[in-house]
Design goal:
Length: 141
C-alpha cells in the first residue's frame, strides 16, 4: 500500500485546530491571572500612596487641618472602592516610643497612618482573598 503526499496532507488537516482547542483554556487562565495580579498590584500601590499622603498631612499640619489626615488618605485612594466593607484608615501618634491610634501630635514625635483594603483574586473562581495593609510613619514637624 502506497501513500501519496496528497493523502498525508488530508489526514493532518485538523491537527492545528485540536492543538489550539487544548491550549486555549490554559492560555486564557494565564492571561486572567496576569490581569488579576496587575489589578492587585495597582491597588497596593494606590493604598501605599494613600497611607503616605495621610501621614504627610498629619506630620505637616498638627491641628485644624482641612482635610484631616484620614480624609486625605481616603481622597488619595479615590479610585479604590472605599464603600467596600472592611476598608479603613487609622491615624496614630507615637510619643516616647509608645504608639496607639488617636492621640495628639507633638513636634518631634511620629505619626503613623495605616490603611487596610480587602482584596480577592478571582480566576474563574476565588483563588485567594485577604486584606492589603499599608502603614507609613513620618516625623511630626
Amino acid at each position: 500500500m502506497t501513500y501519496s503526499f496528497r493523502s498525508i496532507l488530508k489526514r493532518n488537516r485538523g491537527q492545528a485546530m485540536v492543538e489550539f482547542a487544548i491550549i486555549i483554556p490554559m492560555l486564557l487562565t494565564v492571561m486572567l491571572a496576569i490581569y488579576q495580579f496587575g489589578v492587585l498590584y495597582n491597588n497596593w500601590v494606590t493604598l501605599t500612596d494613600a497611607a503616605r499622603a495621610g501621614a504627610r498631612q498629619a506630620a505637616v499640619c498638627r491641628a485644624g487641618c482641612s482635610p484631616d489626615p484620614v480624609t486625605r488618605a481616603k481622597q488619595s485612594a479615590a479610585n479604590l472602592n472605599w464603600s467596600t466593607s472592611g476598608a479603613s484608615v487609622t491615624l496614630g501618634y507615637c510619643t516616647s516610643g509608645t504608639c496607639g491610634s488617636g492621640g495628639t501630635a507633638t513636634a518631634g514625635g511620629n505619626t503613623t497612618v495605616c490603611a487596610n483594603y480587602p482584596y480577592s483574586i478571582k480566576i474563574l473562581l476565588t483563588v485567594k482573598s485577604g486584606t492589603l495593609t499599608a502603614c507609613t510613619t513620618e516625623r511630626v514637624e
